Amino acid sequence: MGENDNSEIIEHHVEEEMEKKGTRSRTASSSFPGSVTPSDREGHSGTQSSHRLLAYSDALISIIATVMILPVAHTKLQGNDEELRQSVQLLLSTKIAVYLMTFLIVTVAWAAHIRLFQVIVRIDDCLALLNLACMMLITFLPYTFSLMATFPENILGILLFCGCVMVMGVIQSVIVVYAFSRPFLLNEQIQISENLTVYKHHILKVIMRVPLMCFLASIFSFILFQISYVLLAIVIFLPYISRSLKWCRSKAIGQVEETPDSILFYTFLPEEPLSKDRVEAFSDGVYAIVATLLILDICEDNVPDPTVVQKQFGGSLIAALQDYGPEYLAYFGSFATVGLLWFVHHSLFLHVTKATRFMSMLNTFSLAFVGGLPLAYQLTHEFPRNSRNELEAIQISCVIIFFAGIFQLAIWVVALYNEQETLHPYVRYGGREHVFMLAKLSLYPLVALGTFFLTCILSQFSASIFHLMEITVPFAFLVLRLLVRGGLAMLRLIFCPDRPDQGSVVEEEDDETRVPFNALVT
Amino acid sequence: MGENDNSEIIEHHVEEEMEKKGTRSRTASSSFPGSVTPSDREGHSGTQSSHRLLAYSDALISIIATVMILPVAHTKLQGNDEELRQSVQLLLSTKIAVYLMTFLIVTVAWAAHIRLFQVIVRIDDCLALLNLACMMLITFLPYTFSLMATFPENILGILLFCGCVMVMGVIQSVIVVYAFSRPFLLNEQIQISENLTVYKHHILKVIMRVPLMCFLASIFSFILFQISYVLLAIVIFLPYISRSLKWCRSKAIGQVEETPDSILFYTFLPEEPLSKDRVEAFSDGVYAIVATLLILDICEDNVPDPTVVQKQFGGSLIAALQDYGPEYLAYFGSFATVGLLWFVHHSLFLHVTKATRFMSMLNTFSLAFVGGLPLAYQLTHEFPRNSRNELEAIQISCVIIFFAGIFQLAIWVVALYNEQETLHPYVRYGGREHVFMLAKLSLYPLVALGTFFLTCILSQFSASIFHLMEITVPFAFLVLRLLVRGGLAMLRLIFCPDRPDQGSVVEEEDDETRVPFNALVT
């Protein structure tokens, strides 16, 4: 590559650095062209940047969302008795329901937290402590779900849940009132706006909506508890459903909903930007905890008892550990899968310039399946080899991996619909990394789909082979760039044989991408 | 406070924002005055900022370091049989040893990872995948410790551990060689330096030191396995010991060790800066996982079985849950403690401008005790009320909290020794927040110490009262500022009654702190 090419890449780097440095302030004011710098406002002794508080909250919320897969994965599935097996399956489905409900409601709470702290950009000690109280209640929610799932006809679980949500609503309102009484804590655009009180009332109204629904649900629970569940389901799914519907309508009719100029936050539009930093931090947390849960199982279950080793294996530890061989393979295979799904996510968000609510929703779905991977790991090594169950376990693993990958691909597809705003020029249609990104994103869904159909055709398929496949996928990523280059060159050779080489093509693309990114957006 | 005061605070804010934005590039080049901007160098297609890779690695390492407390906390301590109790205690001490060893070795690996990626500041796909392979091996280390602790006389655990470390050394060497073959991935200061190969050989030499020791250990394990353990202990503790000794000597004699100008990284000096961002991210991860492990226990253990509720409590869920009352209290108390220790840590690092190796070491010790909190939680609610064991459990909790807090205080004390470089003017001697910071940092050690002596004096002390105390501490933090202000005002009134009011004192302090921070450092 020539000198010309290098200078263009330097521009890319400058932009990357700029992005990295300015992300926090940029995301907070991204919807406002020409915003003032965060330090133009007057301050107060003891105010702090909220950066680390948010990072800690993201870590807490992502772990609490994911860790509920542990009770699911720890459910023992063995049992020769048919009746016992049915009761175990009931227990398992209950626990899976708890996991999914926790994941959904926690991510809803997390989205609300993001939006709150896009308005409040600086904190002081008091806000930090209030936020910690909020976190304490969020981490308590999974327990209320466990109660609800185990005793669906007892209203105590509902009441506890509604109580937590209502207290959280009160705390959040206190946070908003406190922050608006000290305007230097707020986003600059709100600080300088004339109608501070309008903002305050709008935000309070949005925040209090969920606690009010919960209050209704807790009252109805005394009359007819089924209605409470319906109400709670509405609370959880309403934002998702209304967002998807609105998005579909806006895409179908092309009609863009108008927001009043005075209210720029809390719009509930699918295009509303969510802090990309925080979406990344949350995803990192989920991937990290999933990767770690695997080794926790290994350490708890796969250390043989010294007396057993002495008696059954004549003191030979190696012989005793040979029994666990497939589990190590399963561990490395699963870790490779989690790591590579993170890698694909990382590559994708490197080229995403703005995360919208809709993209964040798809990301949540992808993460919910990633969180299911410990279950897949548990299933694939639990059953005796070459049994019918082993085949089913591999199929379940494939389904989980497929959906985790396909939702990542969906994020990109959604981003492409609005590529001028949400994607880096490199990966837009015709960008130099476009095809490579597509290949990266579709590798896992394709491999999972292929394996799934392979298990349908073959009557026998060993879990060990499956895990070996998982371990070899990283090498596929290493050669992917070569494959894509080779494939593209071949396509060019076939369809445009008059073009001398691909160097000129690359330069052409450079001309397009060399336009500064901001100029393209505005 | 007057107009004058406000302008000074704005300066504080500007600086804070600058710090936040420039941390990544600043820490990487902090030892080099007048460094060039990161984007002055030529780049290459596919290079990426390493920010998110490092955040993910921090999350993984912090979780793996902390999660090994789970097997410790899950060990059931009950048992009326004296012999059984002894075997349980042996098991418990084994598991605690595994936890501490994991925590230490993982933090050593983490420090090596920080230093490696202070040299390599940009990544591409290949480096990202190599780093993931490294992470996979790090997460496997706890299992090798479990084997070592369960079968101390079997060399398999040692061999596995040494194998992992050697493979990690090879991968890290490959990373270094790869990065030096593509200099645009490196730190700018190394890029422009003449002696690239000197750097490369120095770094490779430092990296290969540990794998070589492990190679020796694995050979000795065939001859006399005790020597291997000694060698491994040296590997783990040598950096800590040599650092502490060197630091003590330099403080005692005042002699500062000279480093050759050509080698600025990998110096092993206690003053060597470690990325403050990453120290914060690692600490956040540990605090978050500890807070979450508590609710996991609640969800797994405290949901009663439906049949038990039907038979024993006549279907009354509330009656069944009343048994668990103390556990909820224990949960909220422990969460409040973890949250507030994080809050103190957050307040401290907000005013720390540079994290040195020695501070990071003290931070690690503090975090190791924080990681022990789930054990304290498990102990305080496991024993029958008003028993001798309950008192001991509370004392253990106090000891854990005391050490977690006292090491945080130690970080600050060490920072004060070199306050011009490591602390923000606000919290230095005479700074306006100095006394308040001291009060914040010493609150937990004092409370823990007080409770400990209270339990020694009183023969009975309920765990419920202990947890109620834990929950009330946040309010102490809220009124702490008022208390400190009141106390200072009273001291001034007693010792300097001729001074009219404290306003003038504050202004005097302001004059000192208004000097731009950078001017003070250089």
Automatic annotation (TrEMBL), chains A, B:
Belongs to the TMEM175 family. Keywords: Ion channel, Ion transport, Membrane, Potassium, Potassium channel, Potassium transport, Transmembrane, Transmembrane helix, Transport. Residues 25-38 have a biased composition (Polar residues). InterPro entries: TMEM175-like. This is Endosomal/lysosomal proton channel TMEM175. It catalyses: K(+)(in) = K(+)(out); H(+)(in) = H(+)(out). The chain crosses the membrane at residues 53-73, 96-114, 126-149, 155-180, 210-241, 328-350, 362-381, 393-417, 438-460, 466-484. One of its GO terms (cellular component) is membrane. It is found in: Membrane. It comes from the Eukaryota. Pfam families: TMEM175 (PF06736). GO terms for molecular function: potassium channel activity.
